Amino acid sequence: MSQPATRPDPPQLLRVLGLVFGLSVVVGGVIGSGIMRAPGVVALGIKSEPLILIAWLLGGGAAMLAAMPLVEAGASVPRAGGTYAIAERAFGPLVGFFTGWLSWLQYTASNAFISVVFGEYVHRLGLLQGLSTAAIACALILVVAVINWLGTRASGASQSIASASKGAAFLFLVVVLMVSPRAPTTIAQVAAHPLLVGTAGVAAVVMAIRVIYQTYAGWDAAIYFSEEVERPDRNVVRATFWGIGLVTVLYLLVNVAVMHVLSPAAIAGSALAVGDAAKVSLGAAGNTVITAIGLLSLAAIVNLQIMAASRITWRMARDGVLPPWLAAVASSGAPRRSVALVTAASLIFAVIGNYEAIVKIYSPWSIGAILMVCLAAIKLRVGEPDLPRPWKMPLFPWIAIGAALVQAALIAVVVADNPMGGLLSAFVAVAPLPIYLLFAKTWRRQAGAL
Description:
Elements: H1 19-30, H2 34-45, H3 49-76, H4 83-91, H5 93-124, H6 133-150, H7 152-178, H8 201-215, H9 232-261, H10 264-267, H11 273-282, H12 285-319, H13 336-352, H14 355-383, H15 398-417, H16 419-430, H17 433-448
């Protein structure tokens, strides 16, 4: 009697990434151009050097607390797709779709903006002057897409190398600044950024706190690769917390080095405080060094964002909340169709996007996704008390509630700063929901047939 034919399991992502990769995506995802600008904004509101360092230390602590709900939920639901997978488990496919869309959209829009800034940095070095910044941005996106197309090992290794190089570059800069003499006290204050002119008092302190918190953004990156990291129940937890710790130490060192060269009063309001300190130490070469570090940082972030965004759509398609054809995986572990989708969207943004508008409207999307995870962690703890939890946040549910309130407050601040941008952000966020509601049953049926 013949045995009934069994349907082969669909291709899966490859579990070939380790703790080093997890650390690289957290450190590489957090450290960007923000630390170059932030010290000048912070010094505008906080005048004391010890208080500035305490503020940055507290920023790292706040990131640790905000990460606790995400780490608990992410270790309990070790699936690719990050915030989508957690929200879907807690609240169902509709809320999961909305959360995944927010995360994917933020990564894609940010990718375009960062790539264009990369093009501007290339021009600042005097290179490729015959090409537009948009053309350079598209070239970067395509190069990174090819690396991701090759497979998980190639994209993972490139991220680890880029993040390690970025960290080494910042440490090199710290050493250079620390061995430099302090600038004369008579040095003129650097020109304040136009957006910061007139900011003083309580408003300046609030802006300093907000900028510090935003400079730590990106600490959630490890959970997007839970189906590719070995021992995700342990390594996602370690990568997130250790990564935040490493970033905190590096941020403290950068601030100490900058204030070794220039006083807080000298950098207050600067649009690029680290660059100003480098110019004092290295002269004209300082601008080249800072620009080169910026190029490295931006390229690493683009690689990470294409990797993470493609995992979101892959998992959503595998669950039937997106068309199942996006769930294809090559033998190398690359979700190539999902990589192609995020690449195409990033290219479109880079070519025709209004970059100032993109920056103004995409902030609520990433904050909203973290807010959903904070709520999901509470829902899962209450609704599924027997779910295995390799790591449990202390003081439940207060840390999760506090983290959720912080995210909600940040959204309120962003929208208050730019009401029209907030309205547009909300419109874009909900725009695809009718399409999902129309095709969801068909997608799920097709996904179940795979």
